[in-house]
């Protein structure tokens, strides 16, 4: 599908562009991840406006998280989140067993050390989407074996 | 019937990938010289020992596969190797720089499974 390839290739170039324009060093890695996350944040904010313009109000926080896992994820990545877990105290773990931005990379441990660069934008995407729905959060991601990954959402009570 | 080996070249003649399955005889020349021989404009030919199949894309990627004589035309197979394997797993992989030998384990293992699944591939060299 041309549109999927377009987003994938563009996203990959964005990651490599951000890293190329930075200098070397550990500090820079953190800054690049932050830049990518912030880009994702702004895109997520815009996307959620567009996706929810015709939906009814959400009942509660869990309802919003389910929307992110089903409708939001499907529209962006053409599949749903495979597993959602929560401790009912503001922490949610979204598990994607075949994350679209990682499937071409490897099916195991090869390139694992680079995976976080390709997850930063999506973390921002989730955080931005939630933010425009009135939820402040911190989103992180972890990968132990590609292409499966987990996004952890920590809701910040105001 | 079987597949002997497979080469993938880019438009500059850089050998991106090489795999072999049943290769009875090693050539008397080094790998580099062998690559040079292989890339210069064949379409398909056969000798009394093996058949060479060639597929080139508009972007200059060349897929060269050597099989034994029992194998017929396999343009669609070579096309699949290009589009479903090379394009999907190498071109779309940001950690595989274009124009260099492919390091991706995923590409190597998927290609291997695909070749082994072909109807004209038998585990025992015939």
Automatic annotation (TrEMBL), chain A:
SUPFAM superfamilies given for it?
Answer: Ligand-binding domain in the NO signalling and Golgi transport
Its predominant location is endoplasmic reticulum
Q: Which UniProt keywords apply?
A: Endoplasmic reticulum, Golgi apparatus, Neurogenesis
For the keyword Transferase, the answer is no
Localization per Swiss-Prot or TrEMBL: Endoplasmic reticulum; Golgi apparatus, cis-Golgi network
Instruction: Enumerate the Gene Ontology biological process terms.
Output: endoplasmic reticulum to Golgi vesicle-mediated transport; nervous system development
Entry GO CC: cis-Golgi network; endoplasmic reticulum; trans-Golgi network; TRAPP complex
The record's annotation in Gene3D superfamilies points to:
Trafficking protein particle complex subunit 3 (3.30.1380.20)
Give the function comment from the record. Answer: Component of a transport protein particle (TRAPP) complex that may function in specific stages of inter-organelle traffic. Specifically involved in the early development of neural circuitry, likely by controlling the frequency and amplitude of intracellular calcium transients implicated in the regulation of neuron differentiation and survival.
Similarity field: Belongs to the TRAPP small subunits family. BET3 subfamily.
**Quaternary assembly:** Homodimer. Part of a TRAPP complex. Heterodimer with TRAPPC3. The heterodimer TRAPPC6B-TRAPPC3 interacts with TRAPPC1 likely providing a core for TRAPP complex formation.
Q: What is the protein's name according to its record? A: Trafficking protein particle complex subunit 6B
> Which species does the entry assign this protein to?
Rhinolophus ferrumequinum (Greater horseshoe bat)
